[in-house]
Amino acid sequence: MKESAMENKTQKTQKAQEVQKIGQTQQIQERQEKFTCENFEYQVIRSDRKTMTLEVRRDGNIVVRAPLRTGLPRIRRFVNQKQEWVLGCLERTKEYREQKPLSADLSEAKRNVYIRKAKETITKRVSYFARLMGVSYRNITIREQKTRWGSCSSEKNLNFNWKLILAPPEVLDYVVVHELCHLKEMNHSKAFWEEVGKVMPEYETHKLWLKENGWRL
Predict the structure, then answer these.
(1) Is 146 left (phi over 0), alpha (psi -120 to 50) or beta?
(2) Residues 68, 47: contact at Cβ < 8 Å?
(3) Which of 19, 72, 131, 205 lies at a C-alpha separation of 20 to 30 Å from 105?
(4) pLDDT tens for each residue of 38-49
(5) Cβ-based burial of 176 (10 A; exposed 0-12, middle 13-18, buried ≥19)
(6) pTM > 0.70: yes or no
């Protein structure tokens, strides 16, 4: 009994050490720090990558992604070289935040009208493209989502954001085709985008429109 108890204690110690190592490895793989430039504050995320990138997010946050061993002087030089570009982006994000989306001031009654219209329109377009593509699906759900325009589950259930009804019809069709293509390829691989291109060769135009104007809906 004593020998068994000792073995259990040793196993628990080894397990705790493994968990600690995993946590340390995760910290090494990605380190986050904040620094201040002359005109703005920015966050630095160091990770296992080869290049540096700079991103100005729509909420005004600035993120620099850099390789783990990149020194702070090099990062600061990189940010200083991009200052003019960053300030221009910050000005545009300020304009974005001051403007309201089309759906912001809708009354509940008007919103419900749009949701019903979205359900009707999206259902018809899904049916049309599914026949065209030779795929089948189960259920269609219309939702209000902040960050997603559509999704497709492994059970073949489709979800769409009702605000798509406020977008140009061809953009709505692009999202429908996008999700239906996931019934063939449940990823965003090269094969997936080839499937999208077969049905909608000009899909990149609609994808870009949604990326640049989706916040307006």
Answers:
(1) alpha
(2) yes
(3) 205
(4) 788 999 999 988
(5) buried
(6) no
Query: Which of helix, strand or coil describes residue 66?
Result: strand
For the chain, state the CA radius of gyration: 24
Cα gap 92→98, rounded to integer Å:
10
Other C-beta atoms closer than 10 Å to the C-beta of 7 total: 10
CA separation for the pair 197, 165 (Å, rounded): 22
Over residues 57-113, the pLDDT tens digits come to 877 889 999 999 899 999 999 999 999 898 888 887 776 566 667 788 788 999 999
Encode 194-216: b = buried (16+ Cβ within 10 Å), e = exposed: ebbeebbeebeebbeebeeebee
SS3 42: strand
Give residue 7's identity as a one-letter amino acid code. Answer: E
Q: What are the structure tokens assigned to 100, written together? A: 């309201």
Three-state DSSP state, 148: coil
Rounded CA-CA distance 162/115 in Å is 5
103 compared with 133, residue with greater pLDDT: 133
Length of the chain measured in residues: 217
Does the pLDDT of residue 201 top 50, yes or no?
yes
Cα separation, 127 vs 153, in Å, equals 17
Q: Name the DSSP letter for residue 138.
A: -
